[in-house]
Amino acid sequence: MKRIWxxxxxxxxxxxxxxxxxxxxxxxxxxxDVTQFYTFFRLDPRGPHFYFMEPVWYFELLGxxxxxxxxxxxxxxxxxxxxxxxxxxxxxxxSIGVQILLIFYLQGARDSVTGDQHHRYLVPIQMLFFLLLxxxxxxxxxDARRNPALAAAGRAVPEWQASWPIKxxxxxxxxxxxxxxxxxxxxxxxxxxxxxxxxxxLLLSRSLIWGATDAGEPVFNxxxxxxxxxxxxxxxxxxxxxxxxxxxxxxxxxxxxRARLIFLLGxxxxxxxxxxxxxxxxxxxxxxxxxxxDLEKVRRSLAGRFWSAVR
Amino acid sequence: MTRRNVSRFLLVWLCVTWGAVVVRCDxxxxxxxxxxxxxxxHEVTSNRVVEKAVYxxxxxxxxxxxxxxxxxxxxxxxxxxxxxxxxxxRTFHQEPVGWEHASKNLGSFNxxxxxxxxxxxxxxxxxxxLFRSLNKxxxxxxxxxxxxxxxxxxxxxxxxxxxxxAKVWRDRREADLRWDESWRERW
Lengths: 311, 187
Hints:
The complex is a heterodimer.
Chain A: H1 2-9, H2 15-37, H3 57-62, H4 69-88, H5 92-111, H6 122-133, H7 142-146, H8 148-155, H9 159-187, H10 191-194, H11 196-207, H12 223-228, H13 231-247, H14 257-278, H15 295-310
Chain B: H1 3-22, E1 44-48, H2 52-57, E2 59-63, E3 68-71, H3 73-76, H4 80-88, H5 97-103, H6 108-113, H7 126-136, E4 148-161, E5 164-178
């Protein structure tokens, strides 16, 4: 049992893998953060500070009651700078810690207005947490360039120390999708997947989110309206959601990177389709899928191909 | 951290994250991922007719001095999706979806944990929260002449059957919320 545990958590990655993950995930986050918090720009900095209808639990604990447009926009700008700091490996741990705090604040400021909690940062925040605990700043970073001792320590990081944070991120991400199936079964039951009306209902309500004509048809994007009228397709969509979410943990045991890539491209398509058809804002969520690959191997392979092409 | 301590840490972390799933905790950063999980089978579907100009203008409010005006996205300084939820959902007693996730089909363990009797659902207190937010945003207290004592909103609803979506019929829904003087104690 111990051997299986150790083999799962403590093998597979190097400190360079961690560092390339930090860079790639960070670049994705720069854009992801914009999609999540750009709406703060629309607020009038001199306008009233809205009193939250339902503050998130940590705002309630800290006594934060209002949305401050200036603070939110400053926080957003700082978040992008901290993300840039993480990408470059400049004061890496501090940059990651600042990002975590700012995401807590900005997500709270957004979700407390009416109390609708969004779930898009759950996996990214766990990834940042494990990057914070890891030694991801000890390679490919300004910190390591400036501090030779840190760079030397980075080169000496054993495989087990570099592997467990990435494995923990993988486990969390796979669990997140699996929990989603459990939640649907617990709240609604198997009928969620088996009854095409679930998907039809969602597509219809979302197709009408921009308004309806007198005949009851959507005024914008007719695709979800057309799709909801295809009962068989809606049934397939419901069942494929079950297959994808319930089967997601299998990715932890797929040895072939190509198989993982094909599966994750399918999941990414699912998220993009959800955004187009149902305005579910998970289109950039696949930036978290970097964790399922050893990006250092990818980098070496791409660099090798590039240099052989140049020569 | 030593390898042994990392293993211990991972075990604790797994217990915490899976524990949140068992008790249906959806408080960031813990979750049980209940997005879009709540649904009831039904034959006739209803959808509100969304009118951007109407919800952006906001709810009609009556103040303690009898004057009326509208409170919308611009006055409240909130963005479009928030005024959409306030106008179409909160004003019509539709609580944040998390309330439904947290209370629908609860097992006996989770019911006991929340102190809920069989069949009892938690009260989201939406109406009071709406009056509190609209007034406190402008620093208004219950005795101020500008204090909002009435909130009104309305929209058309389209009904149709899943097997004949082209055939629709309309209805009108109106919300008319009044300030309850007994809420002063909680102000």
